[in-house]
Amino acid sequence: MNYLYVINYFEPDEENICQEEFQVFFQQPFTSRYHFSQLDIPFTRSVFIKDRLTILASNSSLTMLLKEVEKLELYSDCFKVIYYKNALTHLDYRTSLSYCSRLSEVIGGDTDLVHPQDIFALTYIEGVYYFGKLEKNNSWHKYEHKPYSYSHSLSIKAARCAINLGNGTHDDLKIIDPCCGVGTVVLEGLAMGLDIRGSDINRDVSYKGRLNIEHFGYDPLLITRRDIHDITEYYDLAIIDVPYGVYSHISQEQQLDLINEACHIASNCVAITHVEYDEAFKAMHLSYQHKCYLRKGNFYRYFYVLEREDI
Ligand SMILES: C[S@@+](CC[C@H](N)C(=O)[O-])C[C@H]1O[C@@H](n2cnc3c(N)ncnc32)[C@H](O)[C@@H]1O
Protein backbone atom coordinates (compact mmCIF):
# COMPACT_ATOMS: atom_id res chain seq x y z
CA MET A 1 0.00 0.00 0.00
CA ASN A 2 1.18 3.51 -0.72
CA TYR A 3 0.35 6.55 1.33
CA LEU A 4 0.61 10.26 0.83
CA TYR A 5 1.27 12.03 4.13
CA VAL A 6 0.63 15.77 4.21
CA ILE A 7 2.76 17.62 6.72
CA ASN A 8 2.11 21.07 8.05
CA TYR A 9 4.09 23.21 10.49
CA PHE A 10 4.59 26.86 11.30
CA GLU A 11 7.85 28.32 10.08
CA PRO A 12 10.28 28.98 11.61
CA ASP A 13 9.15 28.01 15.15
CA GLU A 14 8.10 24.41 14.52
CA GLU A 15 10.30 23.53 11.56
CA ASN A 16 13.19 21.99 13.46
CA ILE A 17 11.14 19.71 15.72
CA CYS A 18 8.72 18.72 12.95
CA GLN A 19 11.60 17.61 10.74
CA GLU A 20 13.20 15.63 13.58
CA GLU A 21 9.91 13.90 14.37
CA PHE A 22 9.59 13.08 10.66
CA GLN A 23 13.04 11.45 10.77
CA VAL A 24 11.96 9.34 13.77
CA PHE A 25 8.72 8.21 12.10
CA PHE A 26 9.97 7.61 8.56
CA GLN A 27 13.67 6.80 9.19
CA GLN A 28 14.78 9.28 6.54
CA PRO A 29 15.39 13.03 6.34
CA PHE A 30 12.50 15.38 5.66
CA THR A 31 12.37 16.61 2.06
CA SER A 32 8.79 17.66 1.33
CA ARG A 33 5.50 18.53 2.99
CA TYR A 34 3.98 15.92 0.63
CA HIS A 35 5.58 12.64 1.53
CA PHE A 36 4.90 9.39 -0.34
CA SER A 37 5.65 6.28 1.70
CA GLN A 38 4.83 2.62 1.98
CA LEU A 39 5.03 2.88 5.77
CA ASP A 40 1.75 2.68 7.65
CA ILE A 41 2.64 4.83 10.65
CA PRO A 42 0.31 5.84 13.55
CA PHE A 43 0.05 9.30 12.02
CA THR A 44 -2.72 10.58 14.29
CA ARG A 45 -0.14 10.79 17.10
CA SER A 46 1.63 13.59 15.27
CA VAL A 47 0.56 17.19 15.53
CA PHE A 48 2.23 17.91 12.19
CA ILE A 49 0.78 15.24 9.91
CA LYS A 50 -2.42 16.92 8.82
CA ASP A 51 -3.91 14.33 6.50
CA ARG A 52 -3.17 10.94 4.99
CA LEU A 53 -4.29 9.66 1.61
CA THR A 54 -4.25 5.88 1.23
CA ILE A 55 -3.57 5.65 -2.48
CA LEU A 56 -5.87 3.23 -4.31
CA ALA A 57 -4.98 4.22 -7.88
CA SER A 58 -2.58 6.56 -9.65
CA ASN A 59 -1.99 7.40 -13.28
CA SER A 60 -0.73 10.22 -15.45
CA SER A 61 -3.93 10.00 -17.51
CA LEU A 62 -7.27 10.74 -15.93
CA THR A 63 -9.08 8.39 -18.36
CA MET A 64 -6.82 5.53 -17.31
CA LEU A 65 -7.26 6.45 -13.65
CA LEU A 66 -11.06 6.31 -14.02
CA LYS A 67 -10.76 2.83 -15.54
CA GLU A 68 -8.52 1.71 -12.67
CA VAL A 69 -10.94 3.05 -10.07
CA GLU A 70 -13.88 1.37 -11.83
CA LYS A 71 -12.04 -1.96 -11.66
CA LEU A 72 -11.69 -1.57 -7.87
CA GLU A 73 -15.53 -1.84 -7.54
CA LEU A 74 -15.55 0.51 -4.57
CA TYR A 75 -18.74 0.78 -2.53
CA SER A 76 -19.78 3.06 0.32
CA ASP A 77 -23.19 3.82 1.84
CA CYS A 78 -22.18 7.38 2.52
CA PHE A 79 -19.31 8.97 0.65
CA LYS A 80 -18.10 12.01 -1.18
CA VAL A 81 -15.24 12.64 -3.58
CA ILE A 82 -13.24 15.81 -3.12
CA TYR A 83 -10.36 17.38 -4.95
CA TYR A 84 -7.44 17.66 -2.50
CA LYS A 85 -5.64 20.92 -3.23
CA ASN A 86 -1.88 20.82 -2.87
CA ALA A 87 0.80 23.47 -3.02
CA LEU A 88 2.86 21.66 -5.66
CA THR A 89 0.50 21.54 -8.64
CA HIS A 90 -2.54 23.66 -9.35
CA LEU A 91 -5.66 22.29 -11.02
CA ASP A 92 -8.37 24.84 -11.74
CA TYR A 93 -11.62 24.59 -9.84
CA ARG A 94 -13.95 23.69 -12.72
CA THR A 95 -11.67 20.93 -13.98
CA SER A 96 -11.20 19.44 -10.51
CA LEU A 97 -14.97 19.52 -9.90
CA SER A 98 -15.74 17.71 -13.12
CA TYR A 99 -13.04 15.07 -12.43
CA CYS A 100 -14.49 14.42 -8.96
CA SER A 101 -17.99 14.02 -10.33
CA ARG A 102 -16.73 11.49 -12.92
CA LEU A 103 -15.00 9.56 -10.14
CA SER A 104 -18.19 9.55 -8.00
CA GLU A 105 -20.01 7.87 -10.87
CA VAL A 106 -17.75 4.82 -10.80
CA ILE A 107 -18.14 4.30 -7.02
CA GLY A 108 -21.14 2.27 -5.85
CA GLY A 109 -23.44 3.40 -3.00
CA ASP A 110 -24.78 6.78 -1.92
CA THR A 111 -23.17 10.15 -1.73
CA ASP A 112 -23.53 12.50 1.21
CA LEU A 113 -21.78 15.81 0.77
CA VAL A 114 -22.43 17.06 4.30
CA HIS A 115 -21.75 14.09 6.61
CA PRO A 116 -19.88 11.52 4.57
CA GLN A 117 -18.55 8.42 6.33
CA ASP A 118 -15.91 7.92 3.67
CA ILE A 119 -14.00 10.67 1.93
CA PHE A 120 -12.36 9.75 -1.34
CA ALA A 121 -9.94 12.28 -2.73
CA LEU A 122 -8.26 13.06 -5.99
CA THR A 123 -5.10 15.08 -6.19
CA TYR A 124 -2.73 15.96 -9.00
CA ILE A 125 0.97 16.22 -8.17
CA GLU A 126 3.70 16.84 -10.71
CA GLY A 127 2.03 15.09 -13.66
CA VAL A 128 0.34 12.23 -11.81
CA TYR A 129 -3.26 11.88 -10.60
CA TYR A 130 -3.62 10.14 -7.24
CA PHE A 131 -6.92 8.79 -6.00
CA GLY A 132 -7.52 7.30 -2.59
CA LYS A 133 -9.19 7.36 0.79
CA LEU A 134 -8.57 10.46 2.85
CA GLU A 135 -8.12 10.43 6.64
CA LYS A 136 -7.95 13.71 8.48
CA ASN A 137 -5.93 14.10 11.65
CA ASN A 138 -8.13 16.57 13.47
CA SER A 139 -8.64 15.20 16.96
CA TRP A 140 -5.12 15.35 18.42
CA HIS A 141 -6.05 18.37 20.56
CA LYS A 142 -9.09 16.79 22.18
CA TYR A 143 -7.53 17.18 25.67
CA GLU A 144 -6.60 20.82 25.14
CA HIS A 145 -8.89 21.97 27.95
CA LYS A 146 -8.04 19.92 31.00
CA PRO A 147 -9.38 21.03 34.40
CA TYR A 148 -5.97 21.96 35.84
CA SER A 149 -3.01 23.58 34.21
CA TYR A 150 -0.17 25.72 35.49
CA SER A 151 2.29 28.19 34.10
CA HIS A 152 4.97 25.48 33.68
CA SER A 153 2.70 23.02 31.89
CA LEU A 154 3.84 21.91 28.48
CA SER A 155 1.66 22.62 25.47
CA ILE A 156 -0.03 19.61 23.91
CA LYS A 157 2.21 20.06 20.88
CA ALA A 158 5.38 19.91 22.98
CA ALA A 159 4.09 16.93 24.97
CA ARG A 160 3.18 14.94 21.84
CA CYS A 161 6.49 15.78 20.16
CA ALA A 162 8.41 14.58 23.22
CA ILE A 163 6.52 11.29 23.22
CA ASN A 164 6.94 10.77 19.47
CA LEU A 165 10.66 11.56 19.53
CA GLY A 166 11.26 8.90 22.19
CA ASN A 167 8.58 6.37 21.35
CA GLY A 168 8.59 6.49 17.53
CA THR A 169 6.02 4.09 16.10
CA HIS A 170 6.13 1.63 19.04
CA ASP A 171 2.92 0.53 20.75
CA ASP A 172 4.33 -1.53 23.59
CA LEU A 173 6.92 0.53 25.44
CA LYS A 174 6.59 1.12 29.18
CA ILE A 175 6.84 4.88 29.61
CA ILE A 176 7.13 7.15 32.64
CA ASP A 177 7.10 10.89 33.16
CA PRO A 178 8.87 11.10 36.57
CA CYS A 179 8.35 14.89 36.94
CA CYS A 180 4.88 14.93 35.41
CA GLY A 181 3.45 18.13 36.90
CA VAL A 182 -0.29 18.21 36.16
CA GLY A 183 0.14 15.31 33.75
CA THR A 184 0.18 16.82 30.25
CA VAL A 185 2.56 14.18 28.87
CA VAL A 186 0.73 11.36 30.67
CA LEU A 187 -2.64 12.49 29.34
CA GLU A 188 -1.39 12.79 25.77
CA GLY A 189 0.35 9.41 26.00
CA LEU A 190 -2.89 7.82 27.22
CA ALA A 191 -4.79 9.49 24.39
CA MET A 192 -2.29 7.93 21.99
CA GLY A 193 -3.06 4.49 23.49
CA LEU A 194 0.35 4.11 25.14
CA ASP A 195 1.37 2.41 28.39
CA ILE A 196 2.36 5.51 30.34
CA ARG A 197 2.30 6.68 33.94
CA GLY A 198 3.65 9.62 35.87
CA SER A 199 4.83 10.86 39.23
CA ASP A 200 5.79 14.18 40.78
CA ILE A 201 7.34 15.18 44.08
CA ASN A 202 4.80 17.91 44.66
CA ARG A 203 1.63 16.82 46.48
CA ASP A 204 -0.69 19.47 45.09
CA VAL A 205 0.54 19.18 41.52
CA SER A 206 0.39 15.38 41.43
CA TYR A 207 -3.14 15.51 42.92
CA LYS A 208 -4.19 17.85 40.09
CA GLY A 209 -2.54 15.50 37.61
CA ARG A 210 -4.70 12.65 38.97
CA LEU A 211 -7.83 14.80 38.65
CA ASN A 212 -6.88 15.71 35.09
CA ILE A 213 -6.54 12.15 33.85
CA GLU A 214 -9.60 11.00 35.81
CA HIS A 215 -11.61 13.77 34.15
CA PHE A 216 -10.98 12.08 30.79
CA GLY A 217 -11.85 8.61 32.08
CA TYR A 218 -8.38 7.24 32.91
CA ASP A 219 -7.27 5.55 36.12
CA PRO A 220 -6.14 8.40 38.44
CA LEU A 221 -3.66 6.08 40.15
CA LEU A 222 -1.49 6.19 37.03
CA ILE A 223 -0.13 9.38 38.61
CA THR A 224 1.46 9.21 42.06
CA ARG A 225 3.31 11.53 44.37
CA ARG A 226 6.95 10.47 44.41
CA ASP A 227 10.47 11.83 44.29
CA ILE A 228 12.24 10.66 41.13
CA HIS A 229 15.06 9.34 43.35
CA ASP A 230 12.63 6.85 44.94
CA ILE A 231 11.58 5.19 41.67
CA THR A 232 12.70 1.57 41.70
CA GLU A 233 10.94 0.17 38.59
CA TYR A 234 12.67 0.17 35.22
CA TYR A 235 11.05 1.57 32.06
CA ASP A 236 11.71 1.57 28.33
CA LEU A 237 11.35 5.31 28.12
CA ALA A 238 11.36 8.25 30.54
CA ILE A 239 10.18 11.69 29.48
CA ILE A 240 11.35 14.49 31.73
CA ASP A 241 10.40 18.13 31.44
CA VAL A 242 12.85 19.63 33.90
CA PRO A 243 11.76 22.29 36.38
CA TYR A 244 13.04 25.77 35.57
CA GLY A 245 12.46 29.46 36.11
CA VAL A 246 12.16 31.89 38.95
CA TYR A 247 9.52 29.95 40.91
CA SER A 248 11.42 26.65 40.98
CA HIS A 249 14.77 27.97 42.28
CA ILE A 250 16.55 25.08 40.69
CA SER A 251 20.20 25.14 39.67
CA GLN A 252 21.61 23.66 36.50
CA GLU A 253 23.32 20.99 38.66
CA GLN A 254 19.93 20.01 40.10
CA GLN A 255 18.38 19.91 36.64
CA LEU A 256 21.20 17.67 35.40
CA ASP A 257 20.82 15.44 38.46
CA LEU A 258 17.12 14.93 37.64
CA ILE A 259 17.98 14.11 34.00
CA ASN A 260 20.71 11.73 35.14
CA GLU A 261 18.23 10.02 37.45
CA ALA A 262 15.69 9.71 34.59
CA CYS A 263 18.40 8.04 32.49
CA HIS A 264 18.87 5.48 35.28
CA ILE A 265 15.24 4.42 35.46
CA ALA A 266 14.77 3.84 31.71
CA SER A 267 16.66 2.61 28.66
CA ASN A 268 16.01 5.88 26.82
CA CYS A 269 15.12 9.31 28.05
CA VAL A 270 13.63 12.38 26.39
CA ALA A 271 14.83 15.44 28.30
CA ILE A 272 13.13 18.77 27.72
CA THR A 273 15.35 21.68 28.74
CA HIS A 274 15.57 25.44 28.28
CA VAL A 275 19.29 25.62 27.66
CA GLU A 276 21.55 23.47 25.52
CA TYR A 277 23.32 20.81 27.58
CA ASP A 278 25.49 19.20 24.87
CA GLU A 279 28.75 19.57 26.81
CA ALA A 280 27.23 18.61 30.17
CA PHE A 281 25.68 15.47 28.66
CA LYS A 282 29.01 14.51 27.15
CA ALA A 283 30.66 14.85 30.56
CA MET A 284 27.88 12.72 32.08
CA HIS A 285 28.43 10.01 29.43
CA LEU A 286 24.97 10.54 27.99
CA SER A 287 24.76 10.40 24.21
CA TYR A 288 21.85 11.63 22.16
CA GLN A 289 20.39 10.19 18.95
CA HIS A 290 18.11 13.17 18.44
CA LYS A 291 18.25 16.79 19.44
CA CYS A 292 15.85 19.48 18.28
CA TYR A 293 14.02 22.55 19.49
CA LEU A 294 10.60 24.10 19.53
CA ARG A 295 10.55 27.88 19.49
CA LYS A 296 8.02 30.39 20.65
CA GLY A 297 9.46 33.78 19.70
CA ASN A 298 12.66 34.03 21.72
CA PHE A 299 11.79 31.12 24.04
CA TYR A 300 13.36 27.79 23.12
CA ARG A 301 12.63 24.32 24.44
CA TYR A 302 15.29 21.76 23.59
CA PHE A 303 14.42 18.10 23.23
CA TYR A 304 17.18 15.52 23.66
CA VAL A 305 16.66 11.78 23.19
CA LEU A 306 19.32 10.45 25.55
CA GLU A 307 20.94 7.13 26.19
CA ARG A 308 23.56 6.15 28.76
CA GLU A 309 26.84 5.23 27.14
CA ASP A 310 27.48 2.50 29.73
CA ILE A 311 24.44 0.32 28.87
C1 LIG B 1 8.37 21.87 34.44
S1 LIG B 1 7.43 21.01 35.61
C2 LIG B 1 6.65 19.74 34.69
C3 LIG B 1 5.42 20.22 34.01
C4 LIG B 1 4.67 19.14 33.28
N1 LIG B 1 5.39 18.69 32.11
C5 LIG B 1 3.29 19.60 32.91
O1 LIG B 1 3.00 19.80 31.72
O2 LIG B 1 2.48 19.83 33.82
C6 LIG B 1 8.62 20.12 36.51
C7 LIG B 1 8.06 19.30 37.65
O3 LIG B 1 9.13 18.58 38.26
C8 LIG B 1 8.74 18.33 39.59
N2 LIG B 1 9.94 17.91 40.37
C9 LIG B 1 10.97 18.66 40.79
N3 LIG B 1 11.85 17.91 41.47
C10 LIG B 1 11.38 16.65 41.45
C11 LIG B 1 11.83 15.40 41.97
N4 LIG B 1 12.97 15.31 42.68
N5 LIG B 1 11.09 14.29 41.77
C12 LIG B 1 9.92 14.36 41.08
N6 LIG B 1 9.43 15.51 40.58
C13 LIG B 1 10.14 16.62 40.75
C14 LIG B 1 8.13 19.65 40.01
O4 LIG B 1 7.26 19.46 41.12
C15 LIG B 1 7.40 20.10 38.74
O5 LIG B 1 6.03 19.79 38.79
UniProtKB/TrEMBL annotation:
<protein>
    <recommendedName>
        <fullName>Ribosomal RNA large subunit methyltransferase K/L-like methyltransferase domain-containing protein</fullName>
    </recommendedName>
</protein>
<feature type="domain" description="Ribosomal RNA large subunit methyltransferase K/L-like methyltransferase">
    <location>
        <begin position="149"/>
        <end position="262"/>
    </location>
</feature>
<dbReference type="InterPro" id="IPR029063">
    <property type="entry name" value="SAM-dependent_MTases_sf"/>
</dbReference>
<dbReference type="InterPro" id="IPR000241">
    <property type="entry name" value="RlmKL-like_Mtase"/>
</dbReference>
<dbReference type="Pfam" id="PF01170">
    <property type="entry name" value="UPF0020"/>
</dbReference>
